[in-house]
ABC transporter (Paenibacillus agaridevorans), 299 residues
Amino acid sequence: MTITIEVSRLGLLYDKSAKALDDVTFRLEGGKIYGLLGRNGSGKTSLLSILASFQQQTSGEVRIDGEAPYENERIVNQVCFIQENGYLSESFKVRDVIKLASDCWPNWDADYADRLLNQFELPAKKQIMALSRGMKSALGVTIGLASRAPITIFDEAYLGMDAPSRYYFYEELLKDYMEHPRTIILSTHLIEEVSDLFEEVLILDKGKLVLQEEADKLRSRGSAIIGPADAVDQFAEGLTILSEQKLGGTKSITVFGELGAEREKRATADGLTIGPVSLQDLFVHLTRKGIGSDERKHG
Ligand SMILES: Nc1ncnc2c1ncn2[C@@H]1O[C@H](COP(=O)(O)OP(=O)(O)OP(=O)(O)O)[C@@H](O)[C@H]1O
């Protein structure tokens, strides 16, 4: 099931001095895996917690499936919001939490939850307080996946998990999403690890939405160029250089912006190799201090 999320001129003030969210507007058609990126304190959790009805905005509107989500029973159980360690009562046992979750989300798949608990080696009788940080994260991830909620949000929910568990989660997420298409929003600082999953990317910076773009299109706005140093320098004239490295007579640079067919043709003639740039490198560039909004939009 695909549910549209519409956010219009959203603002959030925790106190009068600082805007956690400032005039944020976007629309998610749904049925995709979205990456929500932003530096520390950029407003990701604030935004996601409003979408999940955990708190109310100060200004602006949110519509999920056409309705305001806050204290809206019909919408609340369509959204599963998983935060690292965010919602678990420490004295509960794993099986109590699973039972609660199964009551919350109408699409809950109990067999799938059991399989995931097994895979993550989470003992049903253990109390939450006796779980390690990684095990708590794995429990959150289990709930998020098994909820099969039409909108499932993972807010840094897998940070505590070790690398094999995280990779298992990424694989499982993709497999389950293909079998049961729904809207997934992943907020993460582990961009390199997760970016292949993203179909669309949103970037927040200091409470403002600075970019919403298809992941492939965003990737195409950056390029890595390698070749003889002189030729690379000539090629780079007028482009925004994100990073550069020189080894002997060879130079490699990463650049931001459309290259254009003419420049690409010249590059090949000059013996330069053009390759892709990671989303992480582009993110670092787009959220670095002093980047103007025109550059974000037009490259
Ligand atoms: N409960 C709160 N009371 C006051 N200010 C808050 C509260 N929660 C968040 N903030 C402030 O709101 C801003 C956005 O915080 P938020 O947690 O949404 O950012 P984030 O992008 O999720 O950050 P991180 O990546 O570090 O988790 C920050 O300036 C933060 O200090």
Q: What stands out?
A: The longest strand covers residues 5-15. The domain at 5-217 is CATH 3.40.50.300 (Rossmann fold).
